[in-house]
Each structure stands twice: as C-alpha cells, then as structure tokens.
Write a structure and sequence with these properties.
The complex is a heterodimer of chains A (about 500) and B (about 180). With about 500 residues, chain A is mainly α. Chain A is about 75% helix and about 0% strand. Chain A has 20 helices and two strands. Chain A has a two-stranded antiparallel ribbon. The longest helix of chain A has about 30 residues. Chain B is mostly helical and about 180 residues long. The termini of chain B are far apart. The chains are: A mainly alpha (about 500), B mainly alpha (about 180). At the A-B interface, helix 5 and helix 6 of A face helix 2, helix 4 and helix 8 of B.
C-alpha cells in the first residue's frame, strides 16, 4: 500500500505538467486530465479500504529518518477525507467539461491542468506528516486556486482575486513564521515528534503556538472573524471553480486544524474555539439571510458550516472530534452539489440573482429536486447525511455539558433552513417567467446532459454518505481515537519502516 | 537566537507590515517580499548558531563527534524552498497588478462591490429622509475608485426613494463575470 500513498500525490502533479504541455489539443488533454483524476480517485478509495482494515500506512520519502526527511502518513482520518475529496474533484471536472461550451463556462486549457495541481496540493496536505511539507502543499493548492480564480481576467475577478491573493499570502507568511517559532521551540517540524514535544513546553509557549496556528489555519478555513475574504471572492469565479473551492479549500483548512491542534494536545484552547465556533455559525448564517444571490447565499453558508466543524474540534472529546470529522466528510459533497445547482441555474437563466429567476420548478424539475435534497441535508433534517452529522455533534456537546454551544448550533440550523427557503421561494417557486431581459444563451443539449449527469452523480455521493453513515461514523470515531491518543500516532510514525 | 538576527527580523516585519497595509498593489508586493525575507531569517535564526557548511564527510572529525560545529542543515533546506515559492508568488501578484492597471488605470485594491452597495443603500435612505439628493453629495461618500461611469453604483441612486437599490451593482457585475 505504501506505493499508493506516493502515487496519489505524484500522479496528478505529473499529469498536470503533461496536460499543460498539450493544453491546446482538446481531446488528448481531456482524456489525460479525466483519466488521471479517475485513477487518483481509484487509488484513494483503495487506500481508504486498506487503511480501514490494516491501519495506518507510513511512507518515508527517500528513506530519510522522520527527523530530517518527509513522511507521508495515511491514517484513517487522512484516507477518509482524501477519498471524498478525490471523488468530488473528479465529478466537478466532468461538470466542467459539460459547462465549458456554455456562456458561464471556464477556459478548459487552464482549468484542466490547474485542477490537477490543486488535486496534488490537496492530496499532499492531507497526507503529509510534517509542518513544512504542509506549508508547501498549501502553497501548491493556493497557487492553483489563485490562477483558477483570476484566469479569465474579468473586472470583478481581478478585483476580488486581489483580495483573495493578498489575504492568503499574508496567512502563508504567518505560516512560515509559525514554522520558525515551532522549530525554535521544539527543534523539529515532524507532527509525530511535535505531538511528543509540544505538550512538554511551558504553557505560555504552547498557548502562543496554538493561537498562532489557529489564526493561520483559521484564515484558510474562514472562521470568525477571519472570513470576510470568502464571500467577496468565491461568487465571482466560474461555477465549476467555486464548487471545488467551496467543497474543498476551506475544509482542508479545518482538516489541518483538527490534525495539528488535536495531535499537539491544545485542549486549553477548547473554550476559545467553542466561542469562535458559535460566532462563526451565527454570523455566517446571518450574512446568508441578508443576501439576494444564490451563489452569495451559499458562500455565506460555507462560513456558517465551518463553525460546526470547529465546534466538534473545540469539544476535544472523542465524540466531538469524530462528529467534526463526519461533518467534514458530509459537507464536501453537499456543498459541491449546491454550488453545481447554482451553476445549472446560471447556465439556464444567465443569472443566479433571486429576483431575476422565477418558477424554475416547472422548467427544470430535476434541478429543483436536487437543490431540495442538498438544502435539506445542509439544514440537517432526517434522513439526510446532515442530520447524522449534526446529531453526532450535538450529542457530543450534551455529553460534556456544553449547553450554550448546543443551543447556538440548533438556532443556526433553523436559520440555515430559513435561508434555504429563501432560495427555494425566489428561484424555484412562483410563476415561470421568460423574462426577455435575461441574457440567456442557448445551452447545447449534450453539455446540459453532461452537467446534469455530473451533478446527479454528486447527489449519489451525498446519498451514499447518508446510507453509509454507520461505517463512516465508525471510521470517524476510530480516527478521533487515533488523533487524541497522540502517543500511538507518534510511535507508529517513528517505528514504521525501521 | 542571536540578538542581531532578531532585530533584523523585527525591522523587516515593521516595514513589511507598513507596506502591506497600503492600497497600492505594487507596494503590497514589496511588503510581502520583505515579510517573506523576515520569515526566512527567523527560520535561520531558529536553526541555532552558525557553523561549518553541512556537507557529509567534509570534515572527518565532525562526523566522529556527532556533527559538532556544523550548521543545522534543515532550516537552510526549508528556507530555500520558501524563497523559491515566494519568487513565484511575487511574479503572480505583479501580473495581477498589471492586469488591474489595464482594467482600471491604477493598481489599487478595490472595496468590495457588496460593501459599496450597502454603503450606497444607506446613503439613499439618508437622502430620502432629508429629501435632498444631488450629484456632489454622492461622490464624497464613496471611494474615489468608484467614479467609473459604468460601475453600476449609479443605478442604485436612480431608484432613490424606494429605500433600496433594486438593480444592485453586484447584479450587473456578477452577470458580467459569469457570462
């Protein structure tokens, strides 16, 4: 299995170089991009199945010792997130192939290769076993995202792209400073050794490191009050790109936050994280209620949902962290589905503003049904995956008597449903009108069906998460135990391959 | 950590943060370059005292004594990687600044469209209250970069009295961006 771990990172990166070289040869490029994404997805799923039964796989790159070299660690948490992320990227690429013939599509010569770079970055940041490789992986992911966001060079994109790039550059610089601080304090950047050495530091230094990385990862994850870049930049990009960003980038921020803060035993930060989580939930959903465009409403919901994951992390119990992991896995496909629906609305009607689109349910009943499924899952109604995820979190909160955060989480859910109703009433309900003022360009039937196919497959993934809720929750609990029992992780990584 | 290096890091961060808070993108780029240097110097300072070049088998005695007197190679490797990354990013941001200049004639970081719309909406409400609305009144509430005639902000004002800009600038701009 150890070769698979390396291949998941290497295949997309090598393929991105090739795809860039042949980017003008449409057919070859598409085949290359899709097949390499498909094979990466296959490898990730194989890895998940193997890790689930046989336990953590550790790879020492170049056979260096963990103190000096790079280690890739595929534990249950990493393998689970990796598999869901890869499936999502593959389906979004299929959607992009359908959408690019329409007016709202993205330029395929850029999107194909850059999506592969993004995939490599996501895979590396999920699998990496040390802080500095994580920095490099973040940069890889972000550079791809900068290009994807601004490659069309339109007015709004360049303007909001600048905000996005500047904020993320600042966070990256802070990250580098953080690496220096951690290295000065502990003499290592390896997670396994950090898990051993950080708890031994004096409490002032530990708080400093914990807060510093809360800011660094929190900016990437868009937690309160560091979220303001997100709703400005995400809606301006073409839908396919927003869907990948919404589904993945912020979630990777949460992923590394869970990994770093749990492994290094930052339990003291728990109460602070819960306060931040509460504000993130409420402010995100309040922002969503104030918006009147589908993509902007959904962008604010990304922020609100990050709060729920942070809540699970802030509880620092096995049930809480397991809830956060499950919530993360449920969010990636659901959020992507909702943004793909937004893209379908935009392709069909030329805009996604609530007051310009009406009565879509008669024109596009399947799109309406897909939105309904995604929205109910996001709000957390049974029997969808969101219900299981929120139930797990709230149960974990009650277990350790954190009543305040549980109340905030429930209120946030109600408002989530309310703002989803707003989209439903604005876009799908009402009298269908063929407003001649709308700038609708005909969408070729072939590309419409490709987009529908990709979107329905994405729905399939969310349904699969709901149906497999039992096994996935079991993996989440095991993953949380692995993370919270820090010494087990340390000895695994240090012993492996010796 | 040596005191001199810490002072250098402090100085670089001071100037870097000052430049990054500017609205001009080319200054922000310079600010990031300085902040990046500061981070690299901090990384080197974290690596412990200076020493001989960390080459394998160069000094037979050092290998025997467990590498005493050799500089710590790990922070150097990390710094090199960080420097290369910051090279690439600086170029990208410069390209972005150039594109912004092509589109706007300057490379200022703009206010968010939605923020401007909200600001404009409140302004409209004020105007209906005081029942007064004229051309000069409007511009001094808004950022100079808004003055662009096709920016769409004006549309909100033409509907003054509804208390809310119906045809918001985001609308026209996102449609443009998405189409």
């Amino acid at each position: 299995m150890s070769s698979v771990v390396g291949l998941v990172v290497a295949v997309p990166l090598v393929a991105s170089m090739l795809a860039l070289a042949i980017r003008r040869h449409g057919m070859f490029r598409d085949v290359l991009v899709t097949s390499s994404l498909a094979s990466t997805t296959g490898l990730a799923i194989a890895l998940l199945l193997s890790v689930r039964t046989d336990g953590t796989v550790v790879v020492r790159v170049g056979d260096w010792s963990p103190e000096l070299g790079i280690v890739l660690v595929a534990d249950r948490f990493a393998a689970l997130v990796l598999a869901v992320a890869m499936v999502t990227i593959l389906l979004v690429e299929l959607f992009a192939i359908g959408q690019r013939r329409t007016a709202s599509g993205a330029d395929p010569t850029v999107v194909g290769p850059m999506l592969l770079v993004l995939t490599g970055g996501v895979a590396l940041s999920v699998l990496t076993g040390d802080l500095f490789t994580l920095f490099v992986a973040f940069e890889l992911m972000l550079v791809a995202s900068y290009v994807l966001l601004t490659h069309q060079g339109r007015r709004g994109q360049v303007g909001s792209g600048m905000t996005y790039v500047v904020i993320n550059l600042l966070a990256s610089t802070f990250f580098l400073f953080g690496v220096a601080f951690v290295y000065a304090a502990t003499g290592t950047v390896n997670f396994a050794l950090l898990a051993e050495r950080i708890p031994e530091l004096s409490s002032g230094v530990r708080w400093g490191i914990g807060l510093w990385f809360l800011v660094v990862f929190g900016t990437k994850a868009a937690i309160f009050p560091l979220f303001s870049w997100l709703p400005d930049s995400y809606p301006t990009a073409p839908t396919t790109i927003t869907a990948v960003f919404a589904g993945l980038l912020t979630k990777i921020g949460v992923y590394v936050m869970i990994r770093f803060h749990v492994l290094t035993g930052m339990d003291d930060l728990g109460p602070l994280m819960l306060v931040i989580a509460g504000f993130t939930m409420v402010v995100g959903v309040a922002g969503a209620l104030a918006q009147d465009d589908v993509k902007r409403i959904l962008s604010f919901h990304i922020i609100s949902q990050i709060g729920y994951m942070l809540m699970g992390l802030g509880l620092f119990s096995v049930a809480g962290v397991a809830g956060a992991i499950f919530f993360l896995v449920h969010q990636i496909p659901v959020k992507t589905v909702l943004f793909l629906v937004g893209g379908l609305i935009e392709t069909d009607r030329g805009t996604s503003a609530l007051d310009r689109v009406n009565g879509l349910i008669t024109r596009r009943p399947i799109v309406a049904a897909a939105f309904g499924l995604g929205a109910l899952s996001l709000a957390g109604l049974p029997p969808f995956s969101g219900f299981v995820a929120k139930f797990a979190l709230i149960d974990a909160g009650i277990e350790i008597d954190s009543v305040a955060i549980v109340v905030v989480a429930l209120v946030g859910s109600v408002f989530t449903l309310l703002s989803m109703t707003k989209i439903w009433l604005g876009v799908f309900w009402g009298k269908p009108d063929d407003d001649p003022g709308l700038d609708v360009t005909a969408c070729p039937p072939a590309s419409w069906s490709t987009m529908m196919g990709a979107m329905l497959a994405m729905i399939g993934v969310t349904v699969a998460v709901a149906l497999l809720a039992g096994p996935i929750h079991d993996i989440s609990v095991d993953a949380a135990r692995e993370l919270l029992g820090g010494s087990a992780y340390t000895s695994l990584v240090l012993e492996a391959g010796r | 950590m040596s005191g001199a290096l810490i002072l250098v890091v402090g100085g670089l961060v001071t100037v870097g943060v000052y430049l990054v808070t500017s609205r001009v993108l080319s200054r922000i780029v310079l600010g990031f370059a300085l902040l990046g240097h500061a981070a690299v110097v901090a990384l080197l300072a974290a690596g412990g005292p200076a020493g001989d070049p960390p080459l394998a088998d160069r000094l037979g005695d050092d290998a025997a004594s467990g590498g005493e007197g050799i500089a710590n190679p790990l922070p150097q490797a990390l710094s090199l990687t960080a420097i290369v990354i910051s090279f690439g990013l600086t170029l990208f941001v410069l390209a972005l600044a150039r594109r912004q200049r092509e589109l706007h004639g300057d490379d200022l970081v703009e206010d968010d469209l939605e923020d401007r719309r909200v600001a404009a909406t409140e302004h409209v409400v004020d105007d209906t209250e005081t029942d007064r609305f004229d051309e000069t009144d409007r511009t001094d509430h808004l950022d100079p970069s808004v003055d662009d005639p096709d920016d769409g902000v004006d549309v909100g004002f033409e509907r003054a009295g509804t208390g809310r800009s119906v045809d918001a600038p985001t609308d026209s701009d996102t449609t443009e961006a998405g189409s």
